[in-house]
């Protein structure tokens, strides 16, 4: 592909530059001279980044500023190129590892976990839709350029219009959501070719006059995801960058429809990370600050001896362990087919994976909302202080879990359980 992108002016590109105590992480970043060589090493790296992000996640959420420094930290740690080919400087890891990395980052900061998870999906767009030549070119450019990739692809809005002007395509329109926004280096655009029903995906540099972000993302949670609206005006891309097109004709496959279950499992993983982060923060608070109840007739010396607190945390922890097991199993299954030859995937197998993803998502949404709410009962009244910041977890999970109605996920699983039917590919299944 011919897409090129330059870094925006604000973000630094090394761990040393990212170590601004007044900005993203509150403490100096560690120096990472080289990439890990194993999945375990990458997960350790992700945990280090997550720990840094957790230090002032609440303060940064309240400030609600564009996360340039946070993205610089992801780049410095090598996490944005986790899926990239090693020969171009990438981590060469699988989607199974990428999902766990997203979850780990979300424990420290749900917004940054979402940014990274969406980036992984957009990084894989050429793999899903592109020709062999486009796949290789995009992987090299994105990896060598350490791009952070965003996307103006919101199916609930009208599609962008795409005009054919000889050797170029011209995109116009508006999207009410566009995760990645001004902190991205490249934006994935999707629209419908005028006069046809054909959809076109391409990648363009974010920093150009024709892409204008409104800066209007001011929601309850996930406040640092740059998910506001965007106006696309006369943005041009060569036909050679239209993913999957040869001589202006699209050549697709069932594999191309994995974009939806792949991103839906990204959701499940950063939901789980948010819930795990809430439980970790709550148990620490209980150990350090929660006082035992002195009027129960069976007084305890400390809160960690209270039977109802022990019972409560036992229930929440066992629930999240069960959810993690389901989500990990689903991640291993979809990772296998994402890395297998594209022509091997059948419609039936794709549908079965989509059902597993739906089951994973519905479980962690319901269980995660319970965890992020019930922790207040186990930490006590003083834990509701804004300075403690336990509210961030519920706000983050509640906000993004409204992405698409959960009852439809339950219906997908129910139809499979009762009749063996798998969902037809749509923008949400």
From TrEMBL:
Residues 55-145 form the Acyl-CoA dehydrogenase/oxidase N-terminal domain. Residues 1-29 have a biased composition (Low complexity). One of its GO terms (molecular function) is 3-methylbutanoyl-CoA dehydrogenase activity. This is Monooxygenase. Keywords: Flavoprotein, Monooxygenase, Oxidoreductase. SUPFAM superfamilies: Acyl-CoA dehydrogenase C-terminal domain-like (SSF47203), Acyl-CoA dehydrogenase NM domain-like (SSF56645). It comes from Brachybacterium endophyticum. Residues 265-403 form the Acyl-CoA dehydrogenase C-terminal domain. It holds the Pfam family Acyl-CoA_dh_2. Residues 1-40 are annotated as: Disordered. GO terms for biological process: L-leucine catabolic process. InterPro entries: Acyl-CoA_DH_C, Acyl-CoA_Oxase/DH_mid-dom_sf, AcylCo_DH-like_C, AcylCoA_DH/ox_N, AcylCoA_DH/ox_N_sf, AcylCoA_DH/oxidase_NM_dom_sf.
